[in-house]
Amino acid sequence: AEVHHHEFVVQETPVKRLCKTHNIITVNGQFPGPTLEVREGDTLVINVVNRAQYDVTIHWHGIRQLRTGWADGPEFVTQCPIKPGGSYKYRFTIEGQEGTLWWHAHSSWLRATVYGALIIRPRENKTYPFEKPSREVPVILGEWWNANPVDVIREAQRTGGAPNVSDAFTINGQPGDFLKCSEKETTAIPVKPGETALLRFINAALNHELFVTIAQHKMTVVAADASYTKPFTTSVLMIAPGQTTDVLVTMDQAPTRYYVAARAYVSGQNVAFDNTTTTAVIEYDCGCASDFGPKIQPAFPALPAFNDTAAATAFAAGIKSPDRVKVHENVDEYLFFTVGLGLFNCKPGELCAGPNNNTRFTASMNNVSFVFPKKDSLLHAHYYKVPGVFTTDFPAYPPVQFDYTAKNVSQALWQPVPATKLYPLRFGSVVQLVLQDTSIVTPENHPIHIHGYDFFILAEGFGNFDPKKDVEKFNYVDPPQRNTVAVPVNGWAVIQFVADNPGVWLMHCHLDVHINWGLAMAFLVEDGYGELQSLEPPPVDLPMC
Ligand code: C2O
What we know:
Blueprint (H helix, E strand, L loop, with lengths): L2 E15 L2 E8 L8 E4 L3 E8 L7 E4 L25 E7 L5 E7 L9 E7 L13 E10 L4 H11 L8 E4 L16 E4 L4 E8 L5 E6 L4 E6 L2 E8 L2 E3 L4 E7 L6 E9 L12 E7 L24 H10 L14 E13 L13 E7 L2 E3 L7 H6 L33 E3 L2 E4 L4 E8 L8 E5 L4 E8 L18 E2 L1 E4 L3 E8 L4 E7 L2 H6 L2 E6 L20
Parallel strand pairs: 1-4, 3-8, 9-12, 11-19, 20-25, 22-23, 24-32
Antiparallel strand pairs: 1-2, 4-6, 5-7, 7-8, 9-10, 12-17, 13-16, 13-18, 14-15, 14-17, 18-19, 20-21, 25-30, 26-29, 26-31, 27-28, 27-30, 31-32
Bound molecules: CU-O-CU linkage.
The site of CU-O-CU linkage has 11 residues, from strand 5 and strand 31.
């Protein structure tokens, strides 16, 4: 195994998109940022130097960070932010994960432009569990704002309203042919007729789940969130923010140009949405993509409608683990968390741009709207037993039970309580968690991500989870393993994991606006016995608040 050293300089960089030049925050002046390529078992040492005007942290999304929670990255959770002028060395080893992950800023809305791919190949002398592709291409889906994204979320938090929607979706940083001034820079994927390419899709968009298709080509899914899957052939993917999907594509069509297209999947009811489509182009090596002659208009794929929940559901159901996996029938912790939006009634004198102009948007799990601490990080406070930073009384069940998915659930049912509550877990305990969407304000598909863990998705369904009937749907044989689950709109998902990684681990909705509204909580996993079951001591350069 190797040790890879990198320097990531976070800086302001001018880039031209949608006809104008904008100063955005990048890593090393690149947008998207640099691709990290490693093998399973390797160690990464990344010195992040902050030369921007914002506090920043970097999160290595999906990396298990076994015993190295200090390198996980979410601000005020595992570290305080790296101040302008400061730096921090993230050091971690990749154990037991292969496929595609990614990295992104985990501070305010900086991840709108601060992100990149993290590719994990098998160890030397090991091979993929599928035919060796002749080409591998990271395909990162993103979301672009003409305004400064940090200003967009600050303004929403000031007024209590919803943030402005983005101006474009992007593929590898480019909006593509259908957006203004973008045609020339549309991402091109050159291929040879007959070859099989591995496309590593990553959804880095801030606030939207996306459907993805390729004109006239089938995709065979072979991995998701850096876990291999049973090969599954499909013409459409649904990728939620945070998730990755690796697909094999055989270039078996007439040698010309084909669009790869992505469009938002908007699951909430009555959401008016500009379903602008972003595109890249697969260009067969055939002379037809010549820069000198006129280009052939690519073929356009059929994309599901923006509210096609059936397509999203069918795709999720197709993802399975390749073999019989280790799922536990004896569970130590049965948990039930609601996920959904909420509203605060405004106090006199407050700005109030939420619904009806007398509310502010919020969001919660089990009626607790998560508040990030400011004076210390949760992990540091846990390690040094600093009092007053958090409490460990996050509720295992919702405080009130009601028909979570009824139409027009009254907001009066509850108003979330803002707090910094953690749920404590004994080392090694088997955790089974029902994530239940609520329809307060609106039902919505929420991509829930857990830091420091992969989990098995035992089942998903619609309506209210029924502990008697729905257990029959549990897949104990080959459930998919992921780090982010798209909890169905007006429905539920049941996940299982073993708490074998000590530390403080954030769990949150990966629609960034929902984190800002409080759709998050954290698990506090205690040390077990001995060094191999204990959190390492903090690095000497850990940023303090
Ligand atoms: Cu991809 Cu908390 O993050």
